[in-house]
Design brief:
The protein is an alpha+beta fold and 370 residues long. It contains 8 helices and 20 strands. Helix 2 packs across helix 7.
Length: 370
């Protein structure tokens, strides 16, 4: 028998900086990442009420350009890339050929023949291989993941914290749009009004070689607004309060985008012949047997991934995919797949928490209304 050795964990460019700041470092998506600097609740509230900065440089970035770029991106993503114009962004997914999702991603239209794709860190190699194998039209592809650092400055005070660092009018960059400009003395920075928290803010794509100086300038410029570094622990509770899916938990290679409530990014527009479109159209026509739902606990308890979901009589109906104690709401919240007949808001379900059957109620997203 031969023994296999796990690949060593990678580090982001600012790894030593996070250690010096006292961050707890944990393995995540093949990287050593800061999970918290103080406490998850404190960091969560900093973003909801003020402004925080996440280092999410582990994310992957691909450039797709040339005459075949549009056809390739249109074919491999579920959203309708034809609806994009320069400076606009789409949330989308890469459907696989068996009804599931290779990954979810952001698609930026830089110009008519150039797109910038942002993918999950754990799927960089898988996504690159998937898209490359379907590049039959000669589009130019570049994996620039190692060349870029990515900072997410999130919260209602984000504009005030960052405006002194750029001449771009940040308040004019609307949700899911971007500009390319000078930021913190660095040229050609993508300044994107996106994020994973629901509290507004920006994602900044910086050359990896300039990451440290830009990070320090952001901390200095945002000090008056109370800006603090935030870890992945708070990032998870923030995204869950909004009902944003996490790949590997709420969506994966076995979950249909329609089951996951992502019909709004699965566009059956004329000419949008994306991977596995006919099968997904058939699924939509025939109806779903399960759906991803959001639920709030009606009894004290914290739902966790893989906890069973049952009807009030104890019959199995599904499983929790994500769950936590919501810092903003003060109660347990979660998402999970259930049989379709239990997916209507207001339906009572039960979460099996360590041998106890606790009542919960299916609700509409987002949990946190702001």
């Amino acid at each position: 028998m031969s023994e296999t050795t796990a690949a060593p964990l990678r580090t982001v460019p600012l790894h030593d900086t996070h250690v010096a700041l006292g961050a707890k470092i944990v393995p995540f998506a093949g990287y050593q990442m800061p999970v918290r600097y103080s406490s998850d609740i404190e960091e969560h509230n900093t973003v909801r009420r003020g402004v925080g900065i996440f280092d999410v440089s582990h994310m992957g970035e691909f450039r797709v350009s040339g005459p075949g770029a549009f056809d390739l991106v249109q074919r491999v993503t579920s959203n309708d890339v034809a609806a994009l114009t320069d400076g606009k962004i789409q949330y989308s997914c890469l459907p696989n050929e068996t009804g599931g999702i290779v990954d979810d991603l952001l698609v930026y239209r830089m110009r008519e023949d150039e797109y910038f794709l942002v993918v999950n860190a754990s799927n960089i190699d898988k996504d690159w291989a998937w898209i490359s194998a379907r590049n039959t039209g000669g589009a130019r592809m570049e994996n620039v993941s190692d060349d870029l650092a990515l900072f997410a400055v999130q919260g209602p005070r984000a504009v005030a914290a960052l405006q002194s660092l750029t001449s771009e009018a940040l308040s004019a960059i609307t949700y899911y749009t971007f500009r390319v400009g000078t930021f913190a003395g660095v040229d050609d920075v993508i300044i994107s009004a996106t994020g994973y928290t629901g509290s507004g803010g920006f994602e900044l794509y910086i050359p990896a070689a300039r990451a440290t100086e830009v990070w320090e300038k952001i901390l200095a410029a945002g000090a008056a607004e109370g800006l603090k570094p935030i870890g992945l622990g708070a990032r998870d509770t923030l995204r869950l309060e909004m009902g944003f899916c996490l790949y590997g938990n709420d969506i994966d290679d076995t979950t249909s985008p329609l089951e996951a409530g992502l019909g709004w990014i699965t566009k059956f527009a004329p000419g949008n012949d994306f991977t596995n479109r006919p099968a997904l159209e058939e699924q939509k026509k025939n109806g779903l047997t399960r759906k991803l739902v959001a639920f709030e606990m009606r009894e004290t308890g914290i739902p966790r991934a893989h906890y069973p979901l049952t009807d009030p009589d104890g019959n199995a109906i599904g499983e929790v995919t994500s769950g936590t104690q919501s810092p903003s709401l003060g109660r347990g919240i979660g998402m999970g797949y259930v049989k379709t007949e239990f997916s209507k808001p207001g339906t009572e379900i039960c979460v099996q928490v360590r041998g106890r059957s606790l009542k919960a109620e299916v609700v509409k997203l987002p949990f946190w209304k702001g």
